[in-house]
Design brief:
- The complex is a heterodimer.
- Chain A is α+β, with helices and mostly antiparallel strands.
- Chain A folds into two domains: 3-127, NADH:ubiquinone oxidoreductase Nqo5 subunit (Beta Polymerase, domain 2, 2-Layer Sandwich), CATH 3.30.460; 192-464 and 480-485, Cytochrome-c3 Hydrogenase, chain B (Orthogonal Bundle), CATH 1.10.645.
- Chain A contains 16 helices and 17 strands.
- In chain A, helix 7 packs antiparallel against helix 13 (390-413).
- Chain A starts with a helix and ends with a helix.
- Chain B is of the alpha/beta class.
- Chain B has a single domain (27-179), classed as Rossmann fold.
- In chain B, 39% of the residues lie in helices and 12% in strands.
- Chain B has a five-stranded parallel sheet, with helices on both faces.
- The radius of gyration of chain B is 20 Å and the shape is elongated.
- The N and C termini of chain B lie far apart (61 Å).
- The chains are: A alpha+beta, B alpha/beta.
- At the A-B interface, helix 4 and helix 8 of A face strand 1, helix 4 and helix 5 of B.
């Protein structure tokens, strides 16, 4: 039986618009065995609630959820069949205390031994012993291998994380990333809150993707309640989401050049990006458009002055991008740094089901705006490359940013009239929301109780499936190219630290 | 058509450079009450040592990275932080200011305290963003200390979620103002 057939043989649960099936433990075990021999089913997410684990799969152009009861705190691991499951399983043990039987890595992930009681989301957290344990890193053997520990506090203005390099001479033999420093207990804060209050946390999962995460959460809540937001609200969400993509892609493009010590594109992208942020403030009242997407619609309407500000800022971007692209492509010293650096093999991207520019630069054609698709998007152009190096990831970003300019103009030219925010019905339900952020797909699952309060939730940032590939990208490269590789991925730390 | 290709390239660019306005914004003025309050707390000795420039080490102690985006924006040519003598440095050992964001997660507390221990005296600690001020939306979580002030003595708070580059700049300029020798003040 295929993994999909095994899942669909389970007991259907009322989850919208993507179905969820409750599997028995033997069925889940059969699923792990089927996944081991079949490669076409992507594991997109794995999470838990007390006594139960849930997984989201992408198979045959469909999103399907499966659940397995975790009797006595254990469930059969997916990590032997899907390497992307490893960090989810470690996270599930740290937060809910559920152990993946036969999982391939049992080390803690988010839990650094510093919370007052653990596991924090379990029914009965227990006090934690002191002192906190030292982290263990995978060993590397060989002549002359030594370690370079970096972080959690880095030299630049970036998020904290620890990078453990094993190097031989200048060459990186292995990089292992240790995250969790930004764990804020976001899930615990969302539980028991009304959807509109919980949305503030979704909007702060990863500040740079606040619109995409806010939208994915709102979409999940609205699906759970069987509620369709007003058409104008959907169009405004898309305008904000594309503005977010433009400013982040400009930022990443500039920073990659800067990390190759080529300052001009960085300076120029900085100017253009600042223009976009100021237009966002003019149009929506906040530079990053935080808290503007709310379950039920959007909070700020777009005025003619706002539209003019957006058009002016994007006009400058459209005017400058061809010249910047010529500079990026025309300087041998810059191309020498980015071409052939940090290659991720398409086979690896496929195994981890990594989305966003990381996936599309290595041949994985997945963009949530195209499939499963959501309103108001209609077949956006999805650029795909096969090279999988820093250059390919930059080129994907440039192409996407140009496509976003086109999309925003099309949206602004045809804005539906009408209300922007409608009251939500007061009832329970379970829903899934998927949006495409500049980084990849944001996948939110939420269950609301009968009073409309969040009973269980899991917002999955795209970085979960990209971080492990960064470790693969740097292997065999020199240490000095790490900043380039890292910036070309630009994974979120906060988004996965929860 | 006259003129070599070089001239054709050069003259329009030169003319643009001479007659166009700079991209950089005019400087904001820091709120005087903040500058005055800071000046009171600053000793004569540290004024001599710090002079009219500040080296800033940024520490993310749990932010959602929204604050980092806006702090990074200070370096773009529109805000051009370095014209004020303010610059970001790569090590706390080179820093006069720790610019801390986030509600200080329990997992970052030790790293933050060690960063502070590495920073030479005199040192200012600035809490930037609502989370750094008092935990912000994450107040009450098991995983946070509740604000930078709960881990370290702080000198200045810059609220906002996230604070805009202009608000950050006002706060940092207030630190500079506070260091002016007393006679330079009215």
């Amino acid at each position: 039986m295929t993994p999909l057939a095994i899942i669909e043989a389970g007991a259907p649960q009322d989850c919208r618009p993507h179905p969820r099936f409750l599997l028995t433990r033997p069925a889940w075990q059969a699923l792990t065995a089927a996944l081991a021999v079949e490669e076409a089913t992507d594991l997109l997410s794995l999470w838990a609630e007390p006594g139960m684990v849930h997984a989201a799969f992408w198979t045959a152009g469909r999103l399907v959820l499966a659940s397995c009861p975790a009797a006595e705190g254990r469930y059969p691991a997916l990590s032997p069949a899907r390497p992307g499951a490893v960090r989810f399983e470690r996270m599930i043990r740290d937060l809910w205390g559920l152990t993946a039987t036969d999982g391939i890595d049992a080390r803690p992930w988010l839990d650094h031994g510093r919370w007052p009681a653990a596991p924090p989301l379990a029914a009965r957290p227990a006090p934690v012993p002191y002192p906190p344990p030292q982290p263990e890193f995978l060993a590397v053997e060989g002549e002359g291998v030594h370690q370079i520990p970096v972080g959690p506090v880095h030299a630049g203005i970036i998020e904290p994380g620890h990078f453990r390099f094993h190097v031989q001479g200048e060459t990186v033999a292995r990089l292992e990333v240790r995250l969790g420093y930004l764990h804020k207990g976001t899930l615990s804060l969302m539980l028991g809150k009304p959807a509109r209050v919980a949305a503030r946390f979704a909007g702060r999962l990863s500040g740079d993707a606040t619109v995409a995460h806010g939208w994915a959460f709102a979409m999940a809540v609205e699906a759970a309640l069987g509620f369709t937001p007003p058409p104008r609200a959907l169009a405004l969400r898309a305008v904000m989401a594309e503005l977010e993509r433009v400013h982040n892609h400009l930022n990443d493009w500039g920073f990659v050049c800067n990390d190759a010590a080529f300052a001009y594109p960085h300076a120029r992208c900085g100017v253009l990006r600042e223009g976009v942020l100021r237009a966002a403030r003019e149009a929506f009242g906040h530079r990053l458009m935080m808290d503007r997407v709310a379950p039920g619609g959007v909070t700020d309407d777009l005025t003619p002055a706002g539209i003019a500000a957006i058009r002016a800022a994007l006009g400058k971007v459209a005017e400058d991008v061809p010249a910047l692209r010529a500079i990026y492509e025309g300087h041998a010293s810059l191309q020498d740094r980015v071409v052939g650096t940090g290659i991720v093999a398409p086979s690896l991207v496929a195994r981890f089901a990594a989305g966003g520019p990381v996936g599309r630069a290595s041949g994985r054609r997945f963009d949530a705006r195209a499939t499963p698709s959501y309103a108001p998007y209609a077949a956006p152009r999805v650029p795909v490359l096969a090279a999988g190096d820093v250059d390919a990831r930059v080129r994907i970003r440039i192409a996407e940013l140009e496509e976003s300019l086109r999309l925003i103009e099309a949206l602004l030219a045809d804005l539906p009239a009408g209300e922007i925010l409608a009251p939500l019905p007061q009832r329970g339900g379970e829903g899934v929301g998927v949006t495409e952020s500049f980084r990849g797909e944001c996948l939110h699952w939420v269950a609301l109780d009968d009073g409309g309060l969040v009973r269980a939730v899991f917002p999955r940032d795209p970085s979960w499936l990209q971080w492990p590939l960064l470790e693969a990208a740097i292997e065999g490269n020199i240490v000095a190219d790490f900043p380039l590789c890292n910036k070309s991925f630009n994974c979120s730390y906060s988004g996965v630290d929860l | 058509m006259s003129g070599s290709p070089l001239q054709k390239l050069l003259w329009p660019r030169l003319a643009r450079g001479l007659f166009s306005r700079p991209l950089t914004d005019p400087a904001p003025s820091p709120p005087p009450e903040i500058a005055a309050a800071l000046a009171e707390r600053l000793e004569q000795a540290s004024q001599r040592r710090l002079g009219r420039s500040l080296a800033i080490r940024q520490v993310d102690a749990g932010s959602c990275n929204g604050c980092e985006l806006e702090i990074n924006a200070l370096n773009n040519v529109i805000y051009d932080l370095e014209r004020f003598g303010l610059r970001f440095v790569a090590s706390p050992r080179h820093a006069d200011v720790l610019l801390v964001t986030g509600p200080v997660t329990r997992n970052m507390r030790a790293a933050l305290l060690r960063t502070r221990a590495c920073t030479p005296e005199p040192c200012w600690v600035v809490a930037a963003g609502d989370c750094a001020v008092d935990g912000g939306v994450f107040k009450g979580s098991y995983a946070i200390e509740g604000g930078v002030g709960d881990a370290l003595p702080i000198d200045l708070m810059i609220p906002g979620c996230p604070p805009t580059p202009t608000q950050l700049l006002e706060g940092l300029l207030a630190l500079l103002e506070a260091q002016q020798p007393a006679r330079a003040k009215k």
